[in-house]
Specification:
Blueprint: H1 2-14, E1 22-25, E2 28-35, E3 40-44
Antiparallel strand pairs: 1-2, 2-3
Length: about 50
């Protein structure tokens, strides 16, 4: 769990991901909707509508 928090801090401060970035996760396209220290919310295009 501590490793996940450090990974979240690194993502939040390194500009690796930003809100509204388009990403591919497990073959699904989506946008970064929320980014916190412990999780990232990705809205896929199939559930956007």
């Amino acid at each position: 769990m501590l490793g996940n928090i450090f990974a979240g801090i690194q993502l939040a401060f390194s500009d690796a991901l930003r809100l509204d970035d388009v990403v591919v996760v497990e073959g699904e396209w989506g946008r970064i909707e929320e980014l916190t220290l412990t999780y990232v919310v990705v809205r896929t295009w199939t559930n956007a509508g």
